Amino acid sequence: MQKPKLGFWNIWNMSFGFLGIQFGFALQGSTMSRIFETLGANKDEIPLLWIAAPLAGLIVQPIIGYLSDNTWHKNLGRRRPFFLIGAILSSIALLFMPYSSEVWMAAGLLLVLDASINISMEPFRALVADKLPESQRSYGFVVQTLIIGVGTWVASNLPKWVNDTLEISNEAPSGVVPDSVKVAFGVGAFVFITAILVTIFTTKEYSPAELAQFDDAEKEPEEKKGMWETISGTYALMPLIMKKLGVVQFFSWFAFFAMWTLANPALTSHIYNAPKPDVIEFAKTTTDDNGELITMRDANDEVVFLNDAKALEYKQQDKSYNEASDDVGSKMGIYGLTSMVFALGLTFYTAYNSINRKYIHMASLILGGLGFLYMFFIPGEPDKLLISFSLIGIAWGSILSMPYAMLSSSVESHKMGLMMGVFNMFIVIPQIIAAIGGVVFLQNLIGEESIHAMTIAGIFLIIAAFSNLLITNKKAITYQPSIDNE
Questions:
Q1: Concatenated DSSP letters for 339-390?
Q2: pTM metric for this prediction
Q3: Band of the pLDDT at 483, cuts 50, 70, 90?
Q4: Domains in the chain, start-ordered, CATH in brackets?
């Protein structure tokens, strides 16, 4: 028996929780490096401070994938318990993040935030395979991408909107995160939990007995194994299609990690000519117990400047940096908006037409790579970042749908959660390599300017595009319409 096809609003509701998840990811991606810089981190240290995020994914996703495959709660079902747990933890982490007073505190909360987001996110990918027949899976992943695009655009613009519309200040003393960012993270926490609850209350999951009746169910279950044995066995016996898609994912996610970690210092400096000012250049200094130079602070823990002129100069430069950071975040949101438009167009097209997933993904990644490379050629022209991030959004929309659609067509349904979790190894490993120095090393091969991190991102995305030529599995490549042409 085939799974029944679902209407658009059923698929929309089951994917709506991704709006909250993407609010968390987008605030993290557009603002986290700004928080690190505000708390005193050097731009070359920022990728390493981000390492908590991919490490959390590497550890959490296969475990959550296995557990969600083997869970059934009489009220919440198979995947929804993990949506709820992750949403609660993520919302708490989002509320506390902008109140960090030290770099290590922000890095620790980033670990908690990313681990929590992964608890919610990983089962969402598997839910599409649980609920939809094969003919609708690309459609389902594209709808998820549509919702992710909305979340990325809105959340990336939040700090700027809070400052412009609510007139909440984007300025703060040295080492303090601005109030506009604090409010934006609070809004993100509310949206996260609310969106997840919409999916939980509007979506019914198939029970294990119901799933067993469908054609794509496992007919002769293999001997039950423990979690660690199952996960390690899945890594060892990884299907060939997953390995080939993994090459594409490796270069793709290295590129986007470079953007998330270094776009703010790169673009505020190269495009806006407004780098984060180093307060030590404007303040009275002393040495700590290790002989390192530090700024002097008064009884209220505020920086003691050399004189009033230096205090004013620092404030003006910091204001320029914060305004540039707001605008970078807003411009980055365009890639979410473009991915939304891309997903919407793909949704309508794939409803009635076959597509070649491989070539769509290949072309999309090439366009994204060109978007990154274009950034180097537009110093002093921030409006042209709209072109860059629009092209990047096409790549992002494809990354969030095509690889998962190709994979879901080629793996066993009863292991879908675990397979999606293991597949995400190809997301987190490139990010870990980038974080421990890969992106800074490659950037410095071109030049010391941080804009070259975006150049590396462009090169890697184009390599990812041509890596699609490795994929030859016809079932994975070809997508048939999800709605009959009757």
A1: HHHHHHHHHHHHTTS-EEHHHHHHHHHHHHHHHHHHGGG-TT-GGGHHHHHH
A2: 0.79
A3: very low
A4: 8-216+227-479 (1.20.1250.20)
